[in-house]
Design goal:
single chain, alpha/beta, Alpha-Beta Plaits, Rossmann fold, 2 domains, 7-stranded mixed beta sheet, 4-stranded antiparallel beta sheet, 8 helices, 14 strands, globular
Length: 278
Amino acid sequence: MDRIKVTYIFSEVEPWNEVAIAALSELGFDSFVEFESGVEAYIDENKFDENRLNEGILLEISQQIKTEKTIEKIPFQNWNAVWESDFHPVFVEDKLTILAPFHDHSLALGLPIIIQPQMSFGTGHHQTTWMMSKILLEMNNIPSRVLDMGTGTGVLAILAEKLGAKDVLAIDIEPWSVDNTIENAQRNNCENIKALCGDIDLIDGYKFDLILANINKNILKSHMEQYAKALESNSKLVLSGFFDTDSEELINYAKQYGLIFDSKIEKETWAALILVKI
């Protein structure tokens, strides 16, 4: 599927970059690159509505400061090339290194995971994937039954198995992500990962001891009730994919489903939450 890149250049970057990213995230944009004078935002072409860029907070920004906006379609093959050219080893402190097959694997610190990103997200470069990996690495014991919702490349599912999970379900709505997860699981000699294409209804009838969901705020909220039903008591739900400014909203929203705040970590403007099912 082709992607749409929207680039904003602001006469005043702070705090407008962060405000724009929050607004674009609400519109379904799922990847952002900040630069010296603005931000690039990416979204699947079938989710893109140009009219929505001219209303709400984004309109208010353009009325308050000088704003330049450009829109570009990125063909499928070009997007693959962007991923590969920009994919450098990712170090989660000294505990984990996420590499591509073409990297020098002697560079790895701690546990190595080999990822070929293809069209999928989750190489560890984004702050949210990095934080989710850090949380997994710091757990004393990884429970047996794990759900990785919105798996992308499968990196979190792979890490969960490497740390001891025996039954991992990895779900994504994009077929190429599921294919990529299967390939990456094989690449890392994982045998306990089942990858499925679809949405939250696929977890009906399953029970988990740990759920990982690195998506975006609105989808997390729409899934919250199903996460709560699928979690065993005293089990953990780890969430990311949202800005720290949204943390309190998610914590309060989760309470109604018996999901209680345990802890939070932050990286730049992003956050990850650990909630516990009571």
